[in-house]
Design a protein that fits this description.
DNA polymerase, domain 1, globular, Elongation Factor Tu (Ef-tu), domain 3
């Protein structure tokens, strides 16, 4: 059937990380889905660094995987290096990160989408939206056709009125070599939406053959590799190293000479860039006392010499980039593939959304990704997944699916956006999650797979695997609580660790809970080793049990705090509640609450400018 006389359940505009997850989720939930993108060769393109995961971001990818999304599987299929970051810290901080083959990543995503039933594809540019009163009914495309849909998800990335800057040159574009998208912002503004401008940037890409790696510090992957997905994807058998070098005072001095030609400093760029991923000129200006900055040299794939210069994001003129980078050790004879650039684009403050990512102004219209003011592949993919789920549910007349802050980093991400908004590109950190001991990367499957299975996204295979993991962990903990270890067995181990000996037999549970000890120290305890062999306990189960032993106190405390907060989640604020009639509320609280329209008292507590006394007033007013 032709797309022009089909009414799709879900139309996804944009084929980046958000759009790909959105299309896969809605289709897998049975919704007839159309993915429209300007270039089908660039589906899920890694526009910036060729890597997935990292601090807090790795947790998000694991959560997407647990719910039945595809980002983790694609990352495993295209990885060239794997690392578990922050292993020297507590497990709440452990974060997986994988270096990817850029072309293989995009290819893998396209292959998965093409084998997903219910997904149609169309290459064109969406230049407008179709409305019927306060409801979206389709999209207008550049080639002329109007396509009808019951719901629309906008995942336009940096393409909405995108403007690229390199030195004193500026030109329209959503990404290097690709045109920008016009018309959508104007249609949304006409409907009453508030929009703004943000900025991001990207470093140069260079020819890896022209670099002298002997002047850099090698950064290999972990010796024992893992996978992102909880499914049994193929582990890496070989890896490619990254390399570390640094800028210096000579580099900084030369870059400063070009500041008068920098769009950041001469006023041509006035929008806000990412605080935690600044350009090299911004770093030199803001951290003027530092005499050097890290530069990570990252290969872009198995079969390419193209190399990503992480840490050297810039919009300075090409000649300045060329001269300055040659003063970095190892870059003396560098050959450029592409120069770095900055890009400005439209976004829509996310306080205009519901927690389902549906807009408050227009029914069945969803936003996901950088259009909401976020930065990062992982944040975009998470929003795409949630928007795809909720768009499908909306067309099926089912209630929305919303994750709480104590359930997932995805819940923290969306709640922060909706209740606090953002005036700079939002990036996820572990510090943003008050329940990060609960929201670990290792237990994302236990937390979320049952929910994904109920939605029809997470497979039966996932659910069975998760239940087996949970059961084996419980059995191991039970064994440790019931089994004693003699002083003859344990004292030699304690001695080697410089710990005080025990005078009588103890339960293994108490011994293993000591922070200085881990399961690999108990290889000579026969009863434990027999149990591990008989029950086929792997390292994943050992890790789960060890975290439970050592952090049970923290975990229980966070669960208790989460339960208290959830009680406020149950205090519902009526839709379109008139805060002006509550006289005791502060003026600022009335203004913020009216604008954001929280659905529960718990959400109201997280709105900037709403004080504890305002919350007390609302609780009294609600009869609580």
């Amino acid at each position: 059937m032709s797309i022009f006389n089909t009414i799709y359940d879900v139309i996804v505009v944009g084929g980046g990380h958000a759009g790909s997850e959105a299309a896969a989720a809605s289709a897998n939930m049975g919704a007839r889905t159309l993915l429209i993108t300007m270039n089908l060769q660039n589906i899920a393109q890694m526009s910036c660094n060729p890597a997935m995961g990292g601090i807090a971001k790795g947790q998000i990818i694991r959560e997407i995987d647990a719910l039945g999304g595809y980002s983790a599987i694609v990352t495993d299929n295209s990885a060239i290096q794997f690392k578990m970051l922050n292993k020297s810290k507590g497990p709440a901080m452990w974060s997986p990160r994988a270096q990817s083959d850029r072309m293989l990543f995009s290819q893998s995503w396209r292959e998965i989408l093409e084998t997903t039933p219910n997904v149609d594809f169309y290459q064109d540019s969406v230049i407008g939206l179709l409305f019927d009163n306060q409801k979206i009914i389709g999209v207008k495309t550049a080639l002329g056709p109007q396509i009808n849909g019951k719901s629309v998800i906008l995942t336009a990335g940096t393409f909405l009125n995108g403007l690229i800057h390199i030195g004193d040159k500026s030109f329209g574009g959503g990404r290097a070599g690709e045109r920008s998208s016009t018309g959508i912002t104007e249609d949304l503004n006409h409907q009453g939406f508030e929009s703004g401008r943000m900025k991001t940037g990207t470093p140069p890409r260079v020819d890896g053959r022209s670099l002298d790696y002997s002047k850099m510090e090698e950064q290999p992957g972990d010796k024992i590799t893992h996978s992102f997905s909880f499914l049994e994807t193929k582990p890496l058998k070989k890896q490619r190293s990254c390399y570390l070098t640094h800028t210096n005072e000579k580099v900084h001095a030369l870059l400063r000479e070009g500041f008068d030609r920098s769009p950041m400093f001469n006023g041509r760029i006035q929008s806000t860039g990412p605080r935690y991923c600044p350009s090299i000129e911004d770093k030199i200006d803001r951290f003027s006392t530092k005499d050097r900055h890290q530069i990570f040299v990252e290969p872009e794939g198995w079969n390419t010499v193209e190399t990503y210069v992480n840490g050297f994001s810039t919009s300075l003129p090409e000649d300045v980039q060329d001269k300055a980078i040659r003063l970095i050790p190892g870059f003396e004879k560098v050959k450029f593939f592409r120069y770095g650039y900055a890009i400005e684009y439209d976004y829509f403050p996310p306080t205009q959304l519901k927690h389902s990512l549906e807009t408050k102004l227009i029914d069945n219209l969803f936003f996901a990704g950088q259009i909401n003011g976020t930065t990062g592949y992982e944040e975009a993919a998470a929003q795409g997944l949630m928007a795809g789920i909720n768009a499908a549910l909306k067309t099926q007349n089912k209630p929305p699916f919303v994750l709480k802050r104590n359930q997932a980093y995805i819940g923290v991400l969306i709640d922060d956006l909706i209740t606090k908004g953002t005036d700079e590109p939002y990036r996820m950190f572990t510090s943003r999650a008050e329940y990060r001991t609960l929201l670990r990367q290792d237990n994302a499957d236990i937390r979320l797979t049952p929910l994904g299975h109920e939605l029809g996204l997470a497979s039966e295979q996932r659910l069975v695997k998760m239940k087996a993991k949970k059961k084996k962990t419980a059995n191991l903990i039970k064994f440790l609580k019931e089994t004693s270890v003699t002083k003859a067995e344990i004292n030699p181990i304690l001695e080697t660790k410089g710990l005080s000996k025990i005078n009588q037999s103890l339960k293994l549970y108490k011994v293993a809970a000591r922070p200085q000890l881990c399961f690999k120290d108990f290889k000579n305890i026969e009863s434990l080793q027999n149990f591990l062999t008989t029950e086929k306990i792997d390292n994943t189960i050992l890790e789960q049990a060890e975290i439970h032993l050592k952090y049970s106190g923290y975990i229980e405390k966070e669960k208790s705090n989460a339960d208290k907060l959830n009680r406020l989640e149950n205090v519902i604020i009526p839709q379109n509640f008139n805060y002006e009639k509550v006289r005791s509320l502060s003026y600022e609280a009335k203004e913020k609450l009216t604008k954001i329209q929280p659905t529960t008292i718990s959400q109201a507590t997280r709105i900037s400018g709403v004080s504890p006394s305002d919350i007390s007033v609302l609780l009294v007013y609600m009869g609580r």
